[in-house]
Model the fold of this input.
Amino acid sequence: MVGLVLVSHSAGLAAEAVALAKGIAGAGVPVAAAGGTEDGGLGTSVDLVEAAVRGVDQGDGVVLIPDLGSSVLTARLLEEDGRIVVADVPFVEGAIAAAVAAGADAPLADVLASAEESRTFRKL
Amino acid sequence: MDTDLFVAWFEETARLVRRDRDRLTRLDAAIGDADHGTNLDRGLTEVRKALTEWPPESPVQVLTSAGTALIRRVGGASGPLYGSVFRQMGKALDSPVTLAGFSAAFDEGVVAVERLGKAAPGDKTMVDALAPASRALALAVRDGVGVREAFEQAARAAAEGARATIPMQARKGRASYLGERSIGHEDPGAASSALFMAALATVAS
Done:
């Protein structure tokens, strides 16, 4: 199964987004949170992101979903062609779309495409 | 240019950033999230620690070690950005280090940060100080001036580039959400980039 890492400036936001994605897509989907700095502040820690990637990597690839700013830059540093990819998508909607696709055993490219479709989701 | 000069470059940068920490944070408070001074100070403290605990044996090792420490410990956007400059510069640097080699490798570092941040000159970012510094180094190589003079010219170009961000409207980062209200403030990333180049000029003199 493709793994997902939700990278946010906030540990709480990342953890709750993971809970929401798993609640909708299923508890068995490998989704991990990497939020905030190591000392619990707002920001991004490459060590926390790397640890989260290791935790969800089952060999089928990993999609990183960052919120903004340093989360995006840190995620892009960890990209590996065809194995670890960054999704340029809305944080919550993209995470849920990707988690549902990953839970249906879609391959990496399809999980990424599902997440990217969420860019155009309209709410009204 | 030897390993000691590269170590001294980061030590002097750490000293300047510590000295100007509050000014950088004030600049960031105006248009950003008020953490640039403290973040960069923390990152450079970690760089000094890394260079002391694992003494580098070459300029390339200094750049790689410093870049990695900045990526791991800054916590804000400037960590991955400065980290990419120095790690890419380290990859591109030939040994022994000449001014021409330094200039070419530094330019590759600037290209790497432009690519990572998708920033161009005029966006009111650190690129507005780093790109003029890189151009100044390339001109110095072409004109055959000495290392000290070349680094002084690069430092002047970076300082002028940082000041030139004041009337710009931000197109990247948190400041870009402010639209026209970002005009009239110096970009904190460009200001800290000018400190890196000032430190280089100091240690070469």
About this structure: Chain A has a mean pLDDT of 96. The helical segments of chain A are 11-25, 46-56, 70-77, 91-103, 108-117.
